[in-house]
From TrEMBL:
Domain of life: Bacteria
Entry protein name: DUF218 domain-containing protein
One Gene Ontology cellular component: plasma membrane
Pfam families the UniProt entry points to: DUF218
Domain DUF218: 55-168
Length: 225
């Protein structure tokens, strides 16, 4: 069975309707990204002007041979620098541990410990399966009300918008990286992820796994001198 090629409308009116439909579709597709940029315009900071905040949240970004991927390592480096500078007191590492052989939070904890953050100041969230889940769990499980979020620049706006929607007053620290294939893939992915983010912020679904309240953050802050 042969499938014929789509044909353009033959009339001027039909072509105008087609163009209007395409334009409307493009506008609708870009609305979520526009919302992300507008809603986070005043919430992004650099390492030099990030406000002093008790908690930083670092989102998982994959493992290489059991350790943090280069992108994840750069996020963790930024968190370690903030801690050593006295700008944060505790770090919540949130990532995927859905399989026994894949444990982002433990790898993140080990990396931070090796880079000057005491183990008692690091709290692990093992069910941060996506950005929305991480934000909701930060608020509802770990009791985080205010945080510095750390991720790459292509992801940080979505993280801030979702954590704000989840009830965490947030500032975002975007980590710069070499613009390689991974970077461009991440930036392209964000265009599509913005649509899901808008739906999450609007309907606020429960995370894949919520679980009971944990006092790890409170204990970490209580150990501060």
């Amino acid at each position: 069975m042969r499938i014929g090629r789509p044909r353009l409308p033959r009339t001027v009116r039909g072509r105008r309707r087609l163009v209007r439909g395409v334009v409307a579709g493009c506008v609708l597709a870009l609305l979520p990204s526009t919302w992300l940029y507008a809603s986070t315009a005043d919430r992004l900071r650099t390492a030099a002007d990030v406000p002093r905040t008790e908690v930083a949240v670092v989102f998982g970004a994959g493992l290489w041979n059991g350790g943090p991927s280069p992108y994840l390592a750069h996020r963790l480096d930024a968190a370690a620098r903030l801690y050593r500078a006295g700008r944060i007191e505790a770090v919540l590492v949130t990532g995927d541990n859905s399989r026994e052989d894949y444990d982002e939070p433990s790898a993140m904890r080990t990396y931070l410990s090796r880079h000057g953050v005491p183990a008692g100041r690091i709290v692990s969230d093992y069910a941060g399966f996506d950005t929305w889940d991480s934000c909701v769990r930060a608020r509802r499980v770990f009791g985080v009300h205010r945080a510095i979020l750390i991720s790459q620049t292509f992801h940080i706006r979505r993280a801030v918008a979702l954590c704000e929607a989840a009830g965490v007053s947030s500032y975002g620290l975007g980590v710069e990286d070499r613009h390689d294939a991974t970077w461009y893939y991440g930036g392209t992915r964000e265009v599509f992820a913005a649509g899901k983010a808008a739906l999450d912020a609007a309907f606020r679904p429960s995370p894949q796994f919520l679980g009971p309240r944990e006092r790890g953050i409170q204990r970490a802050l209580a150990s501060a001198p």
